[in-house]
Amino acid sequence: MSKNEAVAVTNFIHQIVEKDLEQGTHQGKVVTRFPPEPNGFLHIGHAKSICLNFGTAEKYQGVCNLRFDDTNPEKESQEYIDAITRDVEWLGYTWNGDIRYTSNYFDQLYAWAVHLIQEGKAFVCELNGEEMRQYRGNLTEPGKNSPFRDRSPAENLALFEKMRDGGFEEGEAALRAKIDMASPNMNMRDPVIYRIRKAHHHQTGDKWCIYPSYDFAHGQSDAIEEVTHSICTLEFEDHRPLYDWFVANLPVPATPRQYEFARLNLNYTITSKRKLKQLVDEQHVSGWDDPRMPTISGLRRRGYTPESIRNFCDMIGVTRSNSTVDMGMLEAAIREDLDAKSPRAMCVTDPIKLTITNYEEGKEEWFEVPVHPKDESMGVRRIPFTKNLLIEREDFAMEAPKKWKRLAPGFAVRLRGAFCVTCEEVITNEQGEVTELLVTYDPATKGENPTDYKPKGVIHWVSADNSIPCEVRLYDRLFTEANPDGDKERDFLEFINPESLSVFPNARVEVGMANAPVESRYQFERQGFFAVDPDSNADRLVFNRTVGLRDSWAKMAK
Ligand code: ATP
Ligand code: MG
Q1: Can you tell me the distance from the alpha carbon of 397 to that of 194, in angstroms, rounded to the nearest whole number?
Q2: Rounded to an integer, what distance in angstroms lies between the CA atom of residue 132 and that of residue 126?
Q3: Which 8-state DSSP code applies to residue 43?
Q4: pLDDT at 16 > cutoff 90
Q5: CA nearest neighbour of 421 among 392, 450, 381
Q6: Angle at 273 between CA 267 and CA 279, to 5 degrees
Q7: CA-to-CA distance for 180 and 227, rounded, in angstroms?
């Protein structure tokens, strides 16, 4: 999809923005924000939110802020801040001004909490957690007022200062908004707006031992930044009345509006930072950027391009109804992007020796083949042909099945870009495993079809004498179940696919790939799309398969 087509993509959020612009709401400005909590790496679901927030601002000449929602110091870290920042940049978006932090506004948020106390709209509650739950009621029963609800503003002020100064232990006191314990919306039943956490904060150090709740911090931070459209996922719909209540009851400088959209769910994977963290912590994967992870950094390492992820987000659209997107769509997006861009190469992942008995030892012929079959401008590459070659073990069968289009005893095939060869003899070891194939080549078949026989098919190969040793890592889906999170009885970890990673340590790639840089991407002919892994070093290239050439899962499903 071109940039212009991307601008043409529309959704209900864009329609809201257009109406606001027409009516001059928010003084004709569009300010959005992406507000991750730095408690994990970003995943593909976040990409949807990033594309929506940054994309909407871009489309309407507005700006989008990057704000770390850092009100839970125990779970957050600088490592996550750095990773998230890197991922947003890599996706190709530029945030407005400096990186922002909710913690930048702690002084102001504190002052607004004091304002609510002074207005009689907040109180310090000393019920413990269990009591607070009991007083809260439930969906069918109204809650009860806290016995501390009628404290005077002066008393509340003194107690709130005591909270701030460390005079209470965690859980002994909390500041609550005074709204309505009988509200049918549980979020409005005197929600906690400040709680005690005696924790070091990655941005504010030990300055605070009380931290605002998400609900108290979010709308006010939006207002401080003059965010116009605060776009979040549907689970916050029930929080909107509270968001609006704070904005209405505080002297905030602007009136942001919250809009909700459906989160992205993708089958065969999970999009929950908490569960992804569990996969990392319990070493089911090699890290947050393991190429099997649905994290942005995992997808990047796997070989996904920023364009493919943005195109995917355009393809799935933005609505208000929850649904699950097929992993095949994400794979189709990367296949489409890489097919057009990737240089071609030949790589043999699981080699078997192929010796040409009628070819001179030590001779080397160089063949020129196109870098891209559909794009001449990408030029040609040169590959050496020698007596000793390697082909894919899978491309040989001792007993050819019906319609076998590869090599077998007595069969002739074309070696891609080079000659036709006929299999004359099969050498096996004591265990009966095939160790070498002896073939003859047909010198008349360089760029020409043989006249007296028909080769069965075309297979890829490399020179055994002049190719680069490498490691190839093939990936399959991380879970065997479409909805690994959907089983009430069984934990998602039980559905991890034990075959999600296959490593081929003895692979060989054509010699021109010697200096392939980390993250460069290729199509290995007949095999799929591959990217150079950061584990590569001067002695050893490592390739990750990004995606196969065809959707093999769709075929299996049929
Ligand atoms: P998780 O449940 O994975 O921990 P989160 O919502 O707690 O996600 P945040 O860091 O708070 O993570 O998310 C930042 C923004 O990204 C929020 O606005 C959130 O609504 C959005 N977001 C998170 N997950 C998804 C998803 N699966 N699809 C779309 N948007 C998402
Ligand atoms: Mg969150």
Answers
A1: 70
A2: 9
A3: B
A4: yes
A5: 450
A6: 80
A7: 28
457 and 382 in contact (C-beta within 8 Å)? no
Contact predicate 409/455, CB 8 Å = no
Question: Ligand 2: distance of its center to the CA of 36 in Å?
Answer: 7
The pTM is what? 0.95
CA angle 314, 316, 305 (to 5 degrees): 55
CB of 232 shorter than 6 A to ligand 1: yes
- For residue 338 the two structure tokens come to 């890489």
pLDDT value at residue 555: 61
The token pair at 58 is 């871009």
**Is the CB of 49 inside a 6 Å radius of any atom of ligand 1?**
yes
Helix (H) or strand (E) holding 412: strand 412-415
- At residue 9, the pLDDT reads 76
Which of 46, 88, 91, 214 maximizes ligand 1 atoms within 8 Å of its Cβ, making it the mutation to test the pocket? 46
Per-residue CA distances from 470 to 384, 398, 506, 542 (Å): 18, 27, 6, 6
Going by the DSSP 8-state scheme, the letter that residue 262 receives in this structure is P
Rounded distance between C-alpha atoms, residue 41 and residue 295, angstroms: 7
Q: Is 37 a catalytic residue?
A: yes
| C-beta separation of 313 from 54 below 8 A | no
**Residue 86 falls in the annotated catalytic set:** no
DSSP string, 179-240: --TT-SSGGGSS-EEEEE----BTTTBTS-SEEE-HHHHHHHHHHHTT-SEEEEEGGGGGGH
Query: Which phi-psi region, left, alpha or beta, contains residue 166 (left: φ > 0; alpha: ψ -120 to 50)?
Result: left
Q: Angle 327-341/306-316 helices, nearest 10 degrees?
A: 140
- Secondary structure of 498-521 in HEC code, one letter for each residue: CCCEEEEEEEEEEHHHCCCCCCCE
Task: Report the Cα–Cα distance between both ends of the chain, in Å, rounded.
Answer: 29
Active-site hit among 67, 100, 273, 406: 273
Question: Can you spell out the DSSP letters for 438-480?
Answer: EEEEEGGGSSS--SS-----EE-EEESSSEEEEEEEEE--SBS
| Active site (annotated) includes residue 130 | no
Please state the length of the chain. Answer: 558
- What does the block give as tokens for 130? 């269990």
CA 79 – CA 276 distance, rounded (Å): 16
| Protein residue closest via CA to atom 15 of ligand 1 | 36
Structure tokens at 99: 């990186």
pLDDT digits (tens, 9 = 90+) for 480-499: 999 999 888 999 999 999 99
Q: Judge whether 202 and 81 are in contact, CB under 8 Å.
A: yes
Residue 322 has pLDDT above 70, yes or no: yes
What's the rounded Cα separation, in Å, for the pair 243 and 257? 9
Who contacts 555 (Cβ-Cβ below 8 Å, separation ≥6)?
none
Give 330's pLDDT tier (boundaries 50, 70, 90): very high
